[in-house]
Amino acid sequence: MLEIDTFDNLRGGNAVYKALAHPLAAARLAELVAELNATGPVAIYDPEQIFAPLRALAPQFAVEGVYVHDTLAIGAPRGGIAARPLTEIATTQARSVLIAAFDAHRLAERLKPLLPHGTPIHTLDAVRLPETMLTNRRRYLDPLNFATNFAFFRDDDHMATRLVTANYWTGYGGRNIRLWCRLFDADGAVLADFERPIPDHAGTIELASGDIRRAHNLGPFTGQLFIHAIGVAGHDVVKYALDTYATDGSESLSCTHDANAWPSERFAGLPAPRDDERVVLWLQNSHAVPIAPGAVSLDRMGAETPVPLAAPIPAFATRAINVADLLPDLRWPAQIELRAGRHVVRPRYEVTRMGCTRIAHVNVERADLKPDPTLRTLSPLLGRGFLLPFPILPRRDFTSIALPTPMAHTQSTLPIRLEIFAPDGTQIAERSYGALPRDHALAIDLDDILAPDALPEGGHAELMYDFSQGGEADGWLHGLFRYERRDGTHAAETSFGAHMFNTLMTWKGEPQSYAGPPPGLSTRLFLDLGTPDRQSFCVLAYPSSAPWHRHSATTLILHDATGIPVAERALEIACSGSATVEPWSIFTEAELGRATGGYVIIRDVTCRLFGYHGKRSGTRISFDHMFGF
Q1: Range in 110-114, 226-230, 515-519 the model is least confident about
Q2: Residue 420's pLDDT is what?
Q3: 7, 291, 422, 579: least CB-packed within 10 angstroms?
């Protein structure tokens, strides 16, 4: 496993990781290592604990020793080497010294008198990005200097991809924003570098694979797009929606949201195939160092018998892994754990059935969570506590299936209850499933619970904790949700996790708020408008952990491609209820014409809604959870 620190819920993202892993920085790092290797073993001064991730993300080089000035760190491992006191560097036999720090010119001046005369000193400033690519030139490791992400990107004469978002940074004061992009092919080779200037308004940002392919005269490709947003404010992650759709007349259509910019040790929520399905995991190396044979493996969730991937994956390469090649006997509704060793950001997977494909993503499995006994005795002021809402699509046309998924390394049980609600907020059914084991294979088909004529227009359900039959929990309840047309022509699936919703009282940062401190009692969601042949829609749920307003006060704001509001519609959703929003039927033809290429913002300052967005094209449907700015 790579010894890198990426993200945690308290500190957020680690700019050191992104500073070393950026493709341009990685190329400069390779040049620096070549220079160090040309002279011989190097002494490392590690004042900011950067050597371990540097060692993980750089080509190999000989190290004479690692030196620290913190007396409490002496003897502790740094990148697998016991740290020595900095006072000993005066007698080093190394041919050069590397200060593992950025903005390190003052440190170099202080160190120079201690070294044997003429010993060259290098710093990580040699791998800095060009100044023109920095948002904050005064502090290199400012997270805003590394507002980056990856996107699965394909244009192969059968399928195409379209990435869309909005310039949400301008609302936080970002100006003169531009995107620097690098497109990699399946082997990790660079197909194209390009920049996209972004106007200073909250307009749509679109990156279409066909446009890029034509602009750079490219052949068919399947790979990944690296995106670096420069000049941003407020957010250091590039958020987006990604459509993958057929261009050859087939029925394939998928939509997912951003890739989560941080590599994880493990991912979960990967379904095993049915007998008539093929499940391919798209593994995309996020780093400039190869993934070694055996460094990534698949395991049946809870089995603890991982099967390693034998072949290496080159730097920034993409590989299609048929899960049946590694786990040939595993079938739905069993689920698969990806042990990724922090080599990849959140991967996509592709399910093919009857010539039709659907793409979804796995989710980060937490290494830092332990079972929390206080979840059994939450204050009654928090009401129903953690809730995981998910839509029930119109039952006359669709089946809706929920698969609870473990999402923490230490999670051995899932004490689950399901509650089902009509759009008007009326609870119409509930079912307890006890404390499911980590390796369970329980897919909850709502047809087994509801009467055939119930919820013909759909509704929503909520997974929640139920300790009546024992079990432990950690507050990271997740599920995979699958929707299939009853005629078998198409399917979609998505996954997400639980939160507390709409209570003034808080517990460990819940209910979450993306703007200001908790409790999070407001909504701002992004819905790409789509195109006439791939029209967007969303399902909004109004979950409530404790009694809250009887109805939401939701506004749907239609924006044009430059971010200018075109029209508004008011929407009331009953507490514990839901609503389907179809912009193409809500707004007039004239309004939609003025908003071509635009989007809808779902805004509510009275409550926190939870949403899933999708695209429709004929009988085809796609689905994923929504995001906000």
Answers
A1: 515-519
A2: 98
A3: 7
DSSP state of 292: P
Residue 333: burial class (beta carbons within 10 Å; 0-12, 13-18, 19+) = middle
Peptide bond into 519 cis (omega under 30): yes
- Characterize 25-61 residue by residue with b for buried, 16 or more Cβ atoms within 10 angstroms of its Cβ, and e for exposed: bbeebbebbeebeeeebbbbbbbebbbbbbbbbbeeb
Cis peptide bond N-terminal to 333, omega within 30:
yes
Side chain identity at 356, as an amino acid letter? C
The Cβ-side half-sphere exposure at 147, using a 13 Å CA radius, reads 25
CA dist., res. 416 & res. 419, Å (int):
10
Count of CB atoms situated within 10 Å of the CB of 158: 14
Between CA 157 and CA 555, with CA 624 as vertex, the angle to 5 degrees is 120
**Coil, strand or helix at 374:** helix
- pLDDT (tens digit per residue) in 273-298: 999 999 999 999 999 999 999 999 99
User: CA-CA distance, 370 to 574, in Å (whole number)?
Assistant: 35
Element (H, E) at 107: helix 105-111
Burial of 517 per CB tally in 10 Å (0-12, 13-18, 19+): exposed
* Residue ranges of E strands in 31-85: 42-45, 63-68, 77-78, 81-85
Q: What is the pLDDT of residue 11?
A: 64
HEC secondary structure over 477-499: CEEEEEEEECCCCCEEEEEEECE
User: What DSSP designation does 510 have?
Assistant: B
Question: Rounded mean pLDDT of the chain?
Answer: 95
Query: Do 335 and 270 meet the contact criterion of CB atoms below 8 Å apart?
Result: yes
Could you report the per-residue pLDDT of 54-88, keeping only the tens digit for each? Answer: 999 999 999 999 999 999 999 999 999 999 999 99
Closest CA to 287 of 307, 311, 261: 261
- Work out the average pLDDT over 361-369: 94
Token pair 């809730």 is found at 387
Q: Measure the CA–CA gap between 318 and 107, rounded to whole angstroms.
A: 40
Q: How far is CA 428 from the centre of its chain?
A: 34
The C-alpha atoms of residue 366 and residue 381 are separated, in whole angstroms, by 27
249 pLDDT band, cuts 50/70/90, is: confident
Specify whether the CB–CB gap between 100 and 44 falls below 8 A. yes
Measure the CA–CA gap between 100 and 92, rounded to whole angstroms: 17
The predicted structure's pLDDT at residue 355: 84
Confidence of residue 12 (pLDDT cuts 50, 70, 90): low
> How far is the first Cα of the chain from the last one, in angstroms, to the nearest whole number?
32
Query: What number of residues does the chain have?
Result: 629
Distances (CA, A) of 128 to 132, 137, 388, 498: 11, 11, 42, 39
β-partners of residue 509 are: none
In this prediction, residue 354 carries a pLDDT of 87
pLDDT tens-digit readout, 22-44: 999 999 999 999 999 999 999 99
Residue 9 has pLDDT above 80, yes or no: no
- Cβ–Cβ < 8 Å for 553, 589: no
Give me the pLDDT at residue 628, please.
Answer: 83
What whole-number distance in Å separates Cα of residue 480 and Cα of residue 362? Answer: 9
Q: Could you tell me which residues come within 8 angstroms of residue 128 by beta carbon, excluding any fewer than 6 positions away?
A: 25, 28, 102, 140
Q: What are 505's two structure tokens?
A: 């009282």
Contacts of 115 (CB under 8 A, 6+ apart): 89, 90, 92, 97, 121
